Amino acid sequence: MKTYDVTLTRDGKWWMVAIPEIEGLTQARTIGEAHEMARDYIALALNIPTDGFDIHAHAETVGTVEHVAQLLEDIKTTRAEAERLEREAAEKSRKLATDLAAQKLPLREVGAIMNISHQRVGQLVKSGTRAG
Q: What does the pLDDT read at residue 128?
């Protein structure tokens, strides 16, 4: 199904709705209405049904905030990297807890070394044993 890119820009109380591929421009009061207006505009301009295509709408400028779409993409990338790092840290924690416990250290001692509770060490050791 064909997808049309739609750029939304806030202008006072209105959202300007640009559809560059067909050189279309309309306006709406809300984001929800902007999607509807874009869909109606494309359907009328191309004489096709409103459910015959998809829309990919993104806000580009909102007030004095520019490049909103790029900032959102940067946030998405940063979050994905943070999630990857969190998984890596969790795996390293499991391995360290399991390795230290294998040295016959009491869980309280392992917890003191890792600066976590002995209960958490028990959880890590149990999950590390299952994973390995």
A: 75
Across the chain, what does the average pLDDT equal? 93
Q: What is the pLDDT of residues 80-111, one digit of tens each?
A: 999 999 999 999 999 999 999 999 999 999 99
**65 HSE (CA, 13 A, CB side):** 10
Q: Which CATH architecture has domain 3-66?
A: 2-Layer Sandwich (3.30)
**Structure letter (DSSP) for residue 121:** H
Would you say the pTM of this structure is higher than 0.85? no
Q: What is the β-pairing status of strands 54-62 and 3-11?
A: parallel
Report how far residue 37's alpha carbon sits from residue 4's, in angstroms, rounded to the nearest whole number.
13
The 3-state DSSP class for residue 1 equals coil
Distance CA 127, CA 124 (A): 5
Total residue length of the chain? 132
Give, for 108, the enclosing helix (H) or strand (E): helix 107-114
pLDDT at 132 over 60: no
- The span from the CA of 1 to the CA of 66, in Å, is 30
Q: Is the dihedral of CA 21, 22, 24, 30 positive or negative?
A: negative
